[in-house]
């Protein structure tokens, strides 16, 4: 009798172990990430898209420009305290249609900042997230601003300390009534964790697709040594860069611009994949003059009291980072690399057919020397820092994306 009980207990024990092993294998398969190398053919050129420049402007303090159905809306910062803005509306020939000076404010018909990374166009109007918390709409015809809602800092199942684009720049893409963007916690600069999320453009039905993490910039370690390094690529290292294939419900994102790696996953957070771009990025050249110009600009924008507390050093990396940006256009995935022609201001981009990711070729695309670009409604916008009349200016160029 006792022997029989011992046998039964042993069987139950082994059944439990077997069940744990099966469950572990299931979880392992469920979370398995498939890795694939993306081939590059040296002499294969891509000619099926055209980026046609349709508009350009230069201003000392223009902050952002948006192509709208009735023209190009530009936002000018009137003082270093950001207490006033001026809206300029131009037609596509460059003629000024109207302008208006507005005060910065927190009221329902005011704004504190209008940034690229949390802005999108819907029904001809500019939607944006003001200071990480308020969903507002700007009418480019009347220049009227209205507040749609105050965003909750609660993400169900994740806590109550979240904001959008306040502590780091994020991609944002919209299709129909839906948007995909990323949220960060108020401790982003401590843990560098962010969350890619999907919601309606009213921010209802928000759901987290995946959690991701950026790498802490090496320059931050040096601040404790009273050394401040100007890292030309520093801001881009923290940018949350991704693009959306709406037709197939897939997101592609860059975990780290210092690696030739792209990750993808479905809207449900599954089907995770990793892709390694087969490029020789250690050959990507750096233009020292361009980096020194940027360093001087940063010093000029830094408060004199802060300047006096640190040794300011320009960091010259051995090569440019492998990846800069990416975008799904029609049935192509465009991957912009750090391989830059510094004379023409263009970066090499590699193109892959979706969904097979077969190589289609490469081309050179205009790319910002501030590493700040915006894809919006069939347009591509670059923001460049230029030297003019012995002081820095900003140059904005708008390109219409056309399929040949």
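^ Assign residues to that structure.
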């Amino acid at each position: 009798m006792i022997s029989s009980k011992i046998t039964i207990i042993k069987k139950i024990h082994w059944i439990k172990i077997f069940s744990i092993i099966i469950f572990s294998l299931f979880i392992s398969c469920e979370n398995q990430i498939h890795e694939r190398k993306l081939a590059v053919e040296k002499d294969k050129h891509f000619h099926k898209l055209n980026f046609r420049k349709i508009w350009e402007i230069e201003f000392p303090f223009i902050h952002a420009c948006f192509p709208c159905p009735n023209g190009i809306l530009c936002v000018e910062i009137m003082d270093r305290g950001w207490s006033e803005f001026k809206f300029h509306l131009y037609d596509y020939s460059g003629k000024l249609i109207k302008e208006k000076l507005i005060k910065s404010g927190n009221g329902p018909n005011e704004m504190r900042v209008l940034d690229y990374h949390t802005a999108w166009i819907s029904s001809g109007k500019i939607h944006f997230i003001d200071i990480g918390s308020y969903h507002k709409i700007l009418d480019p015809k009347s220049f009227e601003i209205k507040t749609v809602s105050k965003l909750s800092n609660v993400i169900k199942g994740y806590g109550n300390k979240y904001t959008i684009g306040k502590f780091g720049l994020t991609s944002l893409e919209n299709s129909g009534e839906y948007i995909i963007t990323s949220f960060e916690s108020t401790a982003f600069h401590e843990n560098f964790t962010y969350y890619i999320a999907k919601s309606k453009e009213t921010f209802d039905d928000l759901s987290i697709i995946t959690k991701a993490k950026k790498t802490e910039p090496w320059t931050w370690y040096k601040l404790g040594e009273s050394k401040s390094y100007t890292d030309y690529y520093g801001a881009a290292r923290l940018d949350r860069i991704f693009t959306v294939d709406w037709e197939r419900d897939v997101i592609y994102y860059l975990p780290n611009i210092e690696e030739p790696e792209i990750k993808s996953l479905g809207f449900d957070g599954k089907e995770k994949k990793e892709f390694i771009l087969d490029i020789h990025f250690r050959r990507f050249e750096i233009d020292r003059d361009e980096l020194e110009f940027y360093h001087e600009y940063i010093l000029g924008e830094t408060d004199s009291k802060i300047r006096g507390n640190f040794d300011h050093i320009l960091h010259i990396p051995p090569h440019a980072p492998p990846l800069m940006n990416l975008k799904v256009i029609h049935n192509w995935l465009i991957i912009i690399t750090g391989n830059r022609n510094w004379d023409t201001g263009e970066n090499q981009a590699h193109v892959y057919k979706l969904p097979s990711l077969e190589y289609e070729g490469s081309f050179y695309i205009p790319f910002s020397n501030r590493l700040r670009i915006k894809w919006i409604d069939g347009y591509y916008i670059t923001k460049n820092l230029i030297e003019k009349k012995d002081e820095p200016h900003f140059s904005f160029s708008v390109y219409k994306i056309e399929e040949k």
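Confidence is low (pLDDT under 50) at residues 22-30.
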